Amino acid sequence: MKNGKLKQLYEKLCLVSVFIGVWEKPLFQTFAAYCEAEGTEKKRAYARFVAEIYVGGGAFARLVETLVFEDENVYIKAAADEKECPACIVETAKKELELFSEFASLTRADFASDMEIPEGELPDFEVVNAYLPTSYEKRLQNVGKVGYGVFSTRGMFRLSDEQKIEPILSADKTEIEKFIGYEAEREKVMQNTRAFVAGRPAANVLLYGDAGTGKSSTVKAVANAFFSEGVRLIELRKDQLSFLPYVMGKIAGNPLKFIIFIDDLSFNRSDDHFSMLKAALEGSASAKADNAVIYATSNRRHIIKESFSDRDGDDVHRNDTLQETLSLSERFGLTVLFAKPDKKLYLEIVERLAERYTIEISKAELFERAEAFALKKGSRSARCAEQFIESLL
User: Fold this and answer.
1) Where are the beta strands (DSSP E) in 130-229?
2) Residues 281 and 213 in one domain
3) By three-state DSSP, how is residue 18 classified?
4) Cβ count near 362 (within 10 Å)
5) In a shared domain, residues 201 and 81
6) Burial class (CB in 10 A: 0-12, 13-18, 19+), 254
7) Last residue of a domain, one of 318, 338, 358
8) Which CATH number fits the domain that encloses residue 288?
9) Is 160 domain-assigned?
10) CA dihedral for 192, 197, 201, 203, sign (positive or negative)
11) pLDDT of 218-242, one tens digit each?
12) pLDDT value at 41 more than 90
């Protein structure tokens, strides 16, 4: 290497230990490959390095900062657990943060100088200022709200088929302030979440009612509203409820608060997942974490799909069995009904959406066409109102 700056930096980075997870990320490994390459291959290695920056958004320092913030290490875990970290770890961590700041300050000119070629021949990347020791110290002091690891920079997650909690990259950005109608219903969910965030007793919540009334959107909007207060949402499908103890174990002890979200919930009477949810709602130690609540949505008040044959079955203790299945919804501490809107509410939603999107049409014509649209769809709903406005746009 011609440029002693890059050579010395690389040799220092090879000794990263507290933040070793950061050093093992592709961005840093492509830098390592560049530093070890010779000749023409050095240019290809630089191209791969810049490609990683582009994948991360193009801003080099911000990408480095994100990787550091998302790292799950002994230093930040000690802060989250309010434990004193050994002085040797603290000192090493601070030195490594300084080192990452030096790395994040590299520019295209540094690489051009190293390869002894004109700077203009190389693909460029965005350069911004980021001093990691200061910003990381702020995160340590506020770890209960910003978190660490994969939960530090994202708000919504799902459980993959490989049983890995992964961020939802195209997460719903719905804001609670933009909803129209159902204010009283949403406020109940907001109040419960406020209590949850404040460490007061909070209930598991069932939002039930007609399709298209905004039940799922409400849960996501509430999670977004409390992101800065340390709330994260993990979505589980009904067929993943058997992994509920696994998820609870993963988040147990984490300083953040978690909403376990189960959308469109319903069971058949013989469904194996029924007992797992029942255990979580009843507070079973294996299926419950102190920093988690369950928010579920359903089109049915009693969740269990019941037929007349269930009532006339041959179960010796038929009444006991029937009550067990029908009472699952009663195990939610808070149930909120989202009923199908009447004509007045439906047209109010239509009118306010039309104002929001500056649709120039007379109120009489707007309402007439909105009613015709609802008739064609088969029913009035908040979703129907949104679809009608979208058709006008």
Assistant:
1) 156-159, 165-167, 205-209
2) yes
3) coil
4) 8
5) no
6) buried
7) 338
8) 3.40.50.300
9) no
10) positive
11) 999 999 999 999 999 999 998 898 8
12) yes
Residues 325 and 349 placed together within one structural domain of the fold: no
Region of 212 please: left (phi>0), alpha (psi -120 to 50) or beta: left
User: Cα 24 to the chain's mean position, in Å?
Assistant: 24
- Calpha distance 325→347 (Å, rounded): 38
Average pLDDT over residues 64-89: 93
Structural domain boundaries, residue 184: 166-338
Between CA 188 and CA 215 the distance in angstroms is 12
pLDDT digit string (tens) for 120-161? 999 999 998 889 999 999 999 999 899 888 898 889 999 998
User: At residue 294, what are phi and psi to the nearest 5 degrees?
Assistant: -105, 125
Q: How far apart are CA 46 and CA 377, in angstroms?
A: 56
Dump pLDDT digits (tens) for 190-228.
999 999 999 999 999 999 888 888 899 999 999 999 999
Give yes or no: residues 97 and 227 share one domain.
no
Bridge-based pairing state of the strands 156-159 and 165-167: antiparallel
Radius of gyration of the chain (CA): 27
Last residue of a domain, one of 116, 151, 186: 151
Element (H, E) at 40: helix 40-55
Does 157 map to a domain?
no
Question: What is the rounded CA–CA span in Å between residue 282 and residue 304?
Answer: 17
Q: Which two tokens stand for residue 282?
A: 């009843």
User: Looking at the domain assignment, is residue 244 inside a domain?
Assistant: yes
The one-letter code for the residue type at 273 is H
Residues 173 and 101 in one domain: no
Whose CA is closest to 74, among 183, 148, 135, 154? 148
> Is the distance from CB of 163 to CB of 245 less than 8 angstroms?
no
Considering the domain architecture, whether residues 138 and 268 belong to the same structural domain is answered as: no
Tokens of 250: 């993963």
Q: Is 174 a domain residue?
A: yes
**Domain tally for the chain?**
3
Pairing state of beta strands 205-209 and 165-167?
unpaired
Can you give the pTM of this predicted structure?
0.77
Q: Rounded to an integer, what distance in angstroms lies between the CA atom of residue 38 and that of residue 52?
A: 20
Strand locations in the chain, DSSP E?
156-159, 165-167, 205-209, 231-236, 257-262, 267-268, 292-298, 304-305, 334-338
Residue 179 has pLDDT above 60, yes or no: yes
